[in-house]
Specification:
Organism: Spirosoma agri
Keywords: Signal
Number of domains: 2
Radius of gyration: 24 Å
Protein name: DUF4397 domain-containing protein
Pfam families: DUF4397 (PF14344)
Helix content: 10-25%
């Protein structure tokens, strides 16, 4: 009886060790990947949808599971939608393509750029402009909170059009936090603003004509600026545009 009990205990211990080994392997397999972090934005108002290629390999939609087919990245959206994608540090060729569709028989390259990255560094890549001239803007995103009790915001002005010369202010909860941001410009650095507590009522966000209280755009935005979070606001659209092409404000949470 004692021998049988001892055998059962040893067998159970072996199973426990095996299970622990499997758990350790699983945890290793889901550990966050190391590398550079990149986020891509589509802010070209007359491009219906785009695909992102890195070194001629399609990158946007890489997490789509067959037989599903990745949809092109639509205007005002980003890839990834949340957080950043991980890429191998170094220099890659970024190619932004309008894929073939019912109205275009072949793919069309809208813009290309060389993207040089470093490990554990964050980058944002913006497509902007209108046909036939599209461009890209690359920013390095410093997501280190100098004061962990604050939230952080920035405004990027990517309004397009031949006469796109207006400058804009960003007001949060009635206070201007970014002033006089010129066309196709923006600060890579973030500005600290007061944070609010969790489950607290969101505060209003406005895009204003610089130096005035005149609100630009029809989108009603609010934000819950939590401590340690980083937010990008993008002035986008086409001067004189209507509907989805009108000048407006697009938000994005960086962290």
């Amino acid at each position: 009886m004692k021998h049988s009990l001892k055998s059962m205990l040893l067998f159970g211990l072996g199973l426990l060790l095996l299970a622990c080994g499997n758990e350790a392997n699983f945890l290793n397999s889901v550990a966050p990947a190391s590398g550079a972090r990149v986020k891509f934005y589509h802010l070209a108002p007359d491009a219906a949808g785009i695909d992102i290629y890195l070194n001629d390999q399609k990158f946007s939609g890489v997490n789509t599971v067959p037989p599903a087919v990745a949809a092109p990245l639509s205007y005002t959206n980003s890839f990834p939608n949340q957080d950043y994608a991980t890429v191998t540090p170094g220099t890659v060729k970024v190619k932004i393509v309008a894929p073939a569709s019912t109205t275009a028989t072949t793919d069309a390259t809208l813009a290309t750029t060389d993207l040089t990255t470093q490990a554990d560094t964050y980058y944002s890549v913006f497509l902007y402009g209108v046909s036939p001239t599209y461009s890209s803007l690359v920013l390095t995103d410093n997501l280190t909170a100098a004061d962990p009790t604050k939230a952080y915001v920035r405004l990027i002005n990517l309004v397009s059009g031949a006469d796109a010369s207006a400058t804009y202010d960003l007001a949060i909860n009635g206070v201007v936090v970014a002033a006089g941001v010129a066309p196709l410009k923006g600060a890579a650095t973030f500005t600290a603003i007061p944070a609010i507590g969790y489950a607290t009522t969101a505060v209003p966000v406005q895009l204003r004509a610089a130096g005035t209280t005149t609100v630009v755009g029809t989108t009603t935005l609010t934000i819950q600026p939590y401590a340690g979070r980083f937010y990008t606001f993008i002035a986008r659209g086409l001067v004189g545009g209507t509907g989805t092409r009108a000048v407006n404000l697009t938000p994005s949470t960086n962290r």
